[in-house]
Amino acid sequence: IQLKYHGKLIVATVTSPHRPSPPMLPNGQEEQISGKEVGKEENVNCNDEKMTKIEQKPQVVSTKNMVYVDVIIPVHNASNTIEEAVSSAMNQVLPPSFLEKEKMKFSRIDVAVCCYDDGSKDNSFEILKRLEEKYNDAHVIGQKLNEECTIVSRLLIDSAKNKDNKKTVGQSRGAGYARNRAASLRKKDNIDKDNHYFLCLLDSDDVMHPTRIVEQVTYMLSLDQNDCDRTLLGCKFVREPEDSTWHYTQWANGLSDERLHLEQFREITILQPTWMMSRKRFEELGGYIEAPPPQNNDVENGAGRQHDYQQQQQQPTTAYKLVHPQYDTNETLRLAEDLRLFYAHLQSNGRLKLLRTATNVPLVTYRHTPNMTQSSRTPRKLLLQLRTKAFEDAVLLKDKRWIDNTKSDNNSGNNDTISSDGFIVWGAGRDGKEFVKSLRTECRKKVVAFVDVDEKKINLGYYVNKDLDIRIPIVHFSLAAKDPDVRRTLQKDWAEGGSGVGSCNGFDKDAILGRIDKGRQKRVGDGNGIDDVVGVETLSEKVFDDTEKESRAIVSDCPPPSKRRKLHNISSSSSSSSSRKNIRRGNGDANQSCDIHQLEKILPNLPVVVCVAMYRTNGVLERNVRSVGRTEGQDLWHFS
User: Fold this and answer.
1) What sign results for the dihedral spanned by CA atoms 374, 375, 376, 380?
2) Residue 59, SS3?
3) What is the C-alpha to C-alpha distance for residues 435 and 433, in angstroms, rounded to an integer?
4) Using CA atoms, how far apart are residues 292 and 309, in angstroms rounded to an integer?
5) Phi first, then psi: what are they for 334, rounded to 5°?
6) Per-residue model confidence as pLDDT tens digits over 555-588
7) Is the distance from CB of 213 to CB of 69 less than 8 angstroms?
8) Using CA atoms, how far apart are residues 126 and 99, in angstroms rounded to an integer?
9) How far apart are CA 31 and CA 452, in angstroms?
10) What was the pLDDT predicted at 64?
C-alpha cells in the first residue's frame, strides 16, 4: 500500500490485513517510488499497525495507456442523495464481457470523483467530508479488474464555504459555476498530455451504474482522435420513479445518432447526467457559463442585473456562448447551463453520440425530485427564448438556404424576381405563435406564412398580433409542397375528403388532422428511422382493417362533397410589386392584406420550421411533413 510518511510517498508492506491498493502517484506520472533510502530497512507506524521492510527494488507505475476520468458532481442541498451518487462513481467495475478480451485499450483508469458544494444550507458538505475520510484513508482506493486493467478512484471535494470571500458563503452561484469548480479540483500539472482525459457528468441525486465509466471510455477510445475530441457522448438511462417524464425518457433513449442531430432544436437530445466528453473539448468551449457573484442589492434592482450582464459580456472569448441579449439577467444566467453548453458544442462543429451497450441496458438512473432540481425551477419561457436564439444563430442567420432563396418568376412575363428570403412556420397553434413571438425582429420579418391542417385556424385567414404589429397568413400545408402533382393531390384530398395522405377513410378525425394525442406511446421498430420511433397505443388501435373499412367507408366527421374545405381564407388582390412586398406579414401594418397568388408561387420554395410536436399523431404529421418535399437538417427543422 502507498502511504505518506513525513511528507514523502512510500511503498510499504502491511503485516496485518488491509485493503489492497495498486501503487500509484497522485497524477499517475511514471517514476520510481521508494522509501527514504532504497534498500534500507525502515519501520513506520500508521494507525497503530507495524509496517515492515521497504521493498528492495524500486516500484514503477507506468502511464502507458493510462486514462483519466473526472466525474463532475455539483452539490446543492443534496444530503439525502449525495452519498449514493458518490458511492456509485467510486465503485466502478469492468463489464463481465470485457473480462474475456485479451487486450484492452487501456491498462489503467484513474477516476477522480470531483464534488463542489454550491452554497448548500443542509449538511451536504459535512457528508462529503465524511466520505472523503472514508474513501481516502490511504489517498486512493483501487480495484484490479483483470491482469491488464485496473481502476483507481479518489474523492476530491471543495465548497464555497472554504473560501475567504464571505459574500459567497451559503449563496448558490448555480450548477454551471459548481460544475466548473468541480472540474478544476484535480491538479493536472503532471498529467501527460498524450494520455486520454475525459469528463463524466453526474447530478448529485442520480446514480451511475457500475460499468458506466468503462463502457463510455471504451466507446470514446474506439473513435479516431478528431472524432473523440469533438464528440459529446451520452448513454441510455432509466427514470426513477419509472413513470415520471415517461415521454421524454422514451424519446431520448430511442433516438438514433442521426436523429440526435436532426432533433437538436426540439430539446436537449442527450441528457446531461449521461454526458462524457474530452477535457480538451470542455476547455475549448470555455466550460459552463457562470453568473456574476450575487450582491446584497441584486434582488430588486433588475436594471443593475442587466448592467452586470453587459459588463460580463465584454470579456473576450472565442467560443460560442448562448446568452440572450434581451432576456438574460444575472439571475437567469444561473439557469439552463446544460442547454447553453449543448448548443455551444454544436455551434463549434460538435458531434452527438448515444452509447447503446451490447445488452442494451441503461447506465444511469435519472431521478425525478419534484421542486428540488434546478431544471424544475427554470421557466419554460426562458428555455424557449434560448432555443429560439440558438436556432437563429445556427440556421436563420448562418445557413444560406434560409437567408436567401431568391428566384426568377418566369411566369410573370416581365422577369420579375420573387423575394423569397423568408421561411414557413408549420403550426399556427400555441407552439408556433410562441416561436414567432420569441424571434428577434429581423428574423420575425422573414416569416412568410403559417401552414396548418386545422380547418378552424385556416378559416381565420391570419394570425394577428397588434403588439408586435404583425399579420401572418394561415394556409393549408399543401400550398408548400414542392412537387406540383403532389400539391394537387393533397389539395384535392383536403377539399373532398379523398384517399390521399390526409384521407378520412378508416381514420378518426384527430388522426387525419395530425392533432396531438397525449396517450402513452410504445416503441416500434429499431429506432433508426423517423417512421418507427414511436406508435401511439390509443391511436393505433383506431386504425381499421380492410373489412372494417368496407363497412365504414365514410367517417361521419369527413366533410360531405357539398362542403369543400378551404385551402386558405385570403382574398385575391392585385399582383403589383407593392402587394408582393406585403407578403411577409412579419413586417408592416397588421391591417394589410396579401396577394394569395404570389403566396402560392413562393411557398413551395421556402424552408420550413415545424412547430408541432412529433410522434403524437400516429405518424400523420411526419407523413404530411415529408409530402412537402423538404430535407431535414437542410431546409426543414423540427422545433417542437
Assistant:
1) positive
2) strand
3) 5
4) 8
5) -75, -15
6) 334 555 446 789 999 977 543 333 444 454 455 4
7) yes
8) 38
9) 69
10) 62
Q: What is the pLDDT of residue 355?
A: 96
- Pull the grid cell for residue 78: 443534496
Residue 224 CB burial class (10 angstroms; 0-12, 13-18, ≥19): exposed
Strand, coil or helix: 546 = helix
Tens of pLDDT along 38-87? Answer: 334 444 444 443 433 333 343 344 556 789 999 999 999 999 999 999 99
Distance, in Å, from the CA atom of 239 to the CA atom of 600, rounded to the nearest integer, reads 47
Phi, psi dihedral angles at 451 (to 5 degrees): -120, 150
Residue 640 to residue 634: CA distance in whole angstroms:
17
Flag whether the pTM goes above 0.70: yes
Cα 153 from Cα 139, distance rounded (Å): 9
Handedness of CA 241, 245, 251, 253 (dihedral sign): negative
In Å, how far from its chain's centre is CA 305?
27
Cα separation, 189 vs 110, whole angstroms: 15
For residue 288, give the nearest of 298, 301, 303, 275 by alpha carbon: 275
Position 462 scores a pLDDT of 96
- pLDDT score for 460: 95
d(CA 354, CA 261): 11
Counts of helices then strands in the chain (DSSP H, E): 22, 27
Cα distance between residue 264 and residue 252, in whole Å: 11
Question: Whose grid coordinates read 391542417?
Answer: 453
- Does an H or E element contain 621, and which? helix 620-627
- Nearest Cα neighbor of 472 from 437, 440, 442, 438 is 437
Grid cell listed for 71: 466525474
Q: Tally Cβ neighbours within 10 Å of residue 597.
A: 14
| Rg (alpha carbons) of the chain, rounded to whole number | 30
Asked if pLDDT for residue 172 goes beyond 70, the answer is yes
Closest C-alpha to 114, from 58, 53, 72: 72
Rounded Cα distance between 324 and 328, Å, is 5
What whole-number distance in Å separates Cα of residue 530 and Cα of residue 534? Answer: 8
For the record, the C-alpha cell of 346 comes out as: 454544436
Instruction: Please state, in angstroms and rounded to a whole number, the distance separating the CA atoms of residues 357 and 106.
Output: 19
User: Residues 608, 475: contact at Cβ < 8 Å?
Assistant: no
Q: Which residues contact 506 (CB under 8 A, 6 or more apart)?
A: 543, 544, 548, 549, 552, 555
Q: What angle do CA 265, 395, 259 make, to 5 degrees?
A: 40
Residue 306 and residue 298 in contact, taking contact as beta carbons nearer than 8 Å: no
CB distance 30 to 47 below 8 Å: no
Query: What does the angle CA 182 – CA 186 – CA 190 come to, to the nearest 5 degrees?
Result: 155
* Dist. CA 232–CA 482, nearest whole Å: 36
Query: Of 254 and 416, which is predicted with more confidence?
Result: 254
DSSP characters over 115-174: EEE-S-SSSHHHHHHHHHHHHTTTS-EEEE-SSS-EEEEEEEEEEGGGSS-GGGTT----
Q: For residue 14, give every residue at least 6 positions away whose Cβ sits within 8 Å of its Cβ, in sequence order, or none.
A: 1, 49, 51
- Alpha-carbon span 624 to 192, nearest angstrom: 54
Residues 400, 403, 408, 409, CA torsion sign: positive
pLDDT exceeds cutoff 90 at 307: no
**Cβ pair 451, 475 in contact under 8 A:** yes
Q: What percent of the chain has pLDDT over 90?
A: 53
Residue 142: pLDDT band (50, 70, 90) is low
Name the grid cell of 251: 424519446
